């Protein structure tokens, strides 16, 4: 058992596919697995991890040989060569020794070994006669009944606005997306998963309410796609006698890198950028505007129409296009995506005005770098402390001490599949839209959440962004109360356009946890250094609700059988927090790993100048709202619930970025940098000069800026070079 201070974060845990394996097995857009770092000499045409095979055309023009590609490094005995304007990184080579840590389309990290009934792939509850501590597991539908309550019984949060909940959902879409199997029928033949109620991969159907009362109905549920070479697929790629338990993939980069804005693949980023702009802008909607401000563009014409149509029209409608495919899920989520689209374009235009010599790509990358940093600032400084509370932040996150090369930032399975889904218990059943005085809007009444799923037309035709943002700022989040965990909008009316029925989000969460082989609630408590709960009295004490403890024990029969998502959700909240001790531990550990394991974290001294870091620290989500909506007043803290007008501050008094510190000093083509960009720590000691291999392409995270016309002399000198800029 890993001690919480010495857990798997220090030792990796991400599954690495076998050489030659297809990373996205069974998914559309197959991406071949690339060996992390090939070793060769004398040629730059080797497709090493992330290495562009045509570097000459990208600006790498002068190179002294011999050259060695070694462990993701470009090692040069004695080299003088010009760098492109941006030294960049790709998501597949962010760590020298572990280039797949945090990369997209890799396995979610395991902090505890998975629990499968056959030891390899079959989830808990797969075999109806399988017993746990002498009892069968209850169907997820009966377990979900512990959290269901009517919309009318919602308890409002007295301290935090609805924006706190929405930010959590938005950030979860920045760091995790687990693709489902695209197969429609059991492997090797069988009934369509939409029609069968049998457990046959990839089908793991949910019992419907009718089945709980003696009927035979079920709802389709597709298992998450297995990482290449794991689970039942392992027989194709490994030794038949060696068990390789099923792992699930993260389709996104794990890092807090604003992939919600820019995407996690070159193909998506290519669709998002405005390639005709000299200012490095993102594309906007060409058909609709919001009082002169931009909306998200629609998906390309060739993409399937997947969103709900405006009343009175036929067929499906196009969804919005953003860095994450879930941007149209609910209006509040769309609102945040739209704010950051506008913020990128605002920053890019301003930076270009300050630095007219910058190319469109330089401007785009600089704006992207700032937007990514602001996502990190708002999440760790403003969001996480509200969720975890001060004591858990001190215990599980702590102050930033700098980059730690031993920390694996890969998003963990338990975080993505259970702990961070605590937010589902804070979703309000109503969408509130307010007028300019932050009162109920006479023309835009409150909407049940079920009437807003996948409905971009509501934003375009019903008042635009401002009424929604006012509602998020001035109306409370739903408080997570043990007897009021999930409202009817999520347990009875969850709407999925691809299905003919509605779903129960609580059942989906429980089934997904079992699908992923998550160990039970007590295993995770022990992992976090918390006491295992053995008796009814133990449960009552941990949950501060005797009735909830009674229901769980009556349902599961033994504390060790409780699913981790339900057990963690039922715990009493920590002081000043919106989670109990288990989820505070798991979320805190993950956030610390995302911060400490990211070489490009905004506080790392090489990423921004000291003056730029000071400006970023001044910025806030409130300032982003001021700069990108028509609201003249906002709360100084966007997550803190306030009353209009006394708790709202004029926008001119909300601090913002002074972009002057991003002005690049260029005089007669001379460079003003005196040292090369620093490199991450590396296990090898070498006398060779070393540079990280990079693709100077679209899907990269900025590391530093090297002005045009500069050349690198070893590791210490960047000097001006006569002639045209590169």
Structure keywords:
726 residues; alpha+beta; Myeloperoxidase, subunit C; four-stranded antiparallel sheet; three-stranded antiparallel sheet; 28% helix; globular; disordered N terminus; disordered C terminus; signal
In brief:
It is built from 22 helices and 25 strands.
Structure explained in plain terms:
- The protein is of the alpha+beta class.
- Among the domains are: 140-162 and 177-247 and 480-580, no CATH class; 259-413 and 431-476 and 588-657, Haem peroxidase domain superfamily, animal type (Myeloperoxidase, subunit C, Orthogonal Bundle), CATH 1.10.640.10.
- Helix 3 (162-175) packs across helix 8, helix 3 (162-175) crosses helix 9 and helix 10 (390-396) crosses helix 20 (581-596).
- One of its GO terms (molecular function) is iodide peroxidase activity.
């Amino acid at each position: 058992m890993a001690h919480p201070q010495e857990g798997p974060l220090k030792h990796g845990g991400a599954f690495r596919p076998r050489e030659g394996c297809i990373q996205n097995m069974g998914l559309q857009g197959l991406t071949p697995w690339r060996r992390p770092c090939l070793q060769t000499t004398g040629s730059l045409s080797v497709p090493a991890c992330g290495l562009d095979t045509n570097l000459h055309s990208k600006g790498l023009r002068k190179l002294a040989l011999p050259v060695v590609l070694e462990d993701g490094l470009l090692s040069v005995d004695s080299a003088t060569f010009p760098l492109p304007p941006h030294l960049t990184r790709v998501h597949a080579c962010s760590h020298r020794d572990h280039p797949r840590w945090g990369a997209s389309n890799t396995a979610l990290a395991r902090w505890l070994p998975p629990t499968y009934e056959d030891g390899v792939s079959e989830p808990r509850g797969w075999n109806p006669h399988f017993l746990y501590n002498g009892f069968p597991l209850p169907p997820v539908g009966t377990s979900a009944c512990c959290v269901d309550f009517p919309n009318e019984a919602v308890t409002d949060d007295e301290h935090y606005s609805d924006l706190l909940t929405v930010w959590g959902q938005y950030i979860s879409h920045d760091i995790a997306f687990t693709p489902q199997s695209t197969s429609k029928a059991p492997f090797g033949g069988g009934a369509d998963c939409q029609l069968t109620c049998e457990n046959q991969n990839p089908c793991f159907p949910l019992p419907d309410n009718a089945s709980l009362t003696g009927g035979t109905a079920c709802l389709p549920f597709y298992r998450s796609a297995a990482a290449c070479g794991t689970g039942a697929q392992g027989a194709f790629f490994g030794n038949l006698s060696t068990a390789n338990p099923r792992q699930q993939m993260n389709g996104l980069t794990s890092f807090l890198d604003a992939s919600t804005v820019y995407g996690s693949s070159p193909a998506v980023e290519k669709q998002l950028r405005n390639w005709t702009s000299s200012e490095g802008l993102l594309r906007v909607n060409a058909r609709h505007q919001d009082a002169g401000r931009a909306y998200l563009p629609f998906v390309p014409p060739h993409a399937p129409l997947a969103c709900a149509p405006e009343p009175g029209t036929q067929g499906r409608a196009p969804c919005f296009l953003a860095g994450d495919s879930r941007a149209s899920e609910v209006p509040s989520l769309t609102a945040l995506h739209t704010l950051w689209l506008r913020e990128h374009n605002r920053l890019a235009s301003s930076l270009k005005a300050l630095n007219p010599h910058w190319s469109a790509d330089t401007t785009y990358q600089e704006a992207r770098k700032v937007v990514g940093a602001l996502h990190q600032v708002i999440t760790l400084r403003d969001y996480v402390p509200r969720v975890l509370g001060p004591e858990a932040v001190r215990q599980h996150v702590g102050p930033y001490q700098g980059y730690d090369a031993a920390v694996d930032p890969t998003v963990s399975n338990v975080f993505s599949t259970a702990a961070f889904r605590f937010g589902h218990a804070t979703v309000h059943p109503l969408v509130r839209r307010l007028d300019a005085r932050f009162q109920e809007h006479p023309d835009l009444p409150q909407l049940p959440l079920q009437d807003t799923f996948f409905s971009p037309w509501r934003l375009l035709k019903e008042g635009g962004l401002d009424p929604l943002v006012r509602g998020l700022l001035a109306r409370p989040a739903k408080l997570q109360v043990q007897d009021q965990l999930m409202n009817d909008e999520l347990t009875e009316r969850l709407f999925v356009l691809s299905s003919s029925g509605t779903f129960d989000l609580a059942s989906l969460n429980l089934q997904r946890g079992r699908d992923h082989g998550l160990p039970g609630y007590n295993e995770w408590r022990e992992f976090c250094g918390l006491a295992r709960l053995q008796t009814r009295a133990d449960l009552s004490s941990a949950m501060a609700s005797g009735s909830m403890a009674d229901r769980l024990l009556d349902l599961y029969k033994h504390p060790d059988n409780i699913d981790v998502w339900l057990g963690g959700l039922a715990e009493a909240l920590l002081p000043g927090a919106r989670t109990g001790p288990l989820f505070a531990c798991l979320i805190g550990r993950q956030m610390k790993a995302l911060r400490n394991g990211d070489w490009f974290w905004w506080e790392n001294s090489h990423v921004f100048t000291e003056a730029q870091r000071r400006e970023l620290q001044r910025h806030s989500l409130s300032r982003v709202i001021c700069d990108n909506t028509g609201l003249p007043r906002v709360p100084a803290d966007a997550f803190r619930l306030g009353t209009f007008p006394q708790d709202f501050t004029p926008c001119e008094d909300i601090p913002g970025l002074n972009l002057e510190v991003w002005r690049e000093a260029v005089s007669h083509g001379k460079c003003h940098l005196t040292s090369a960009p620093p490199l991450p720590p590396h296990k090898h000691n070498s006398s060779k000069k070393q540079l990280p291999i990079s693709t100077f392409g679209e899907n990269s995270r900025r590391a530093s800026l090297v002005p045009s016309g500069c050349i690198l002399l070893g590791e210490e000198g960047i000097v001006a070079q006569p002639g045209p800029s590169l």
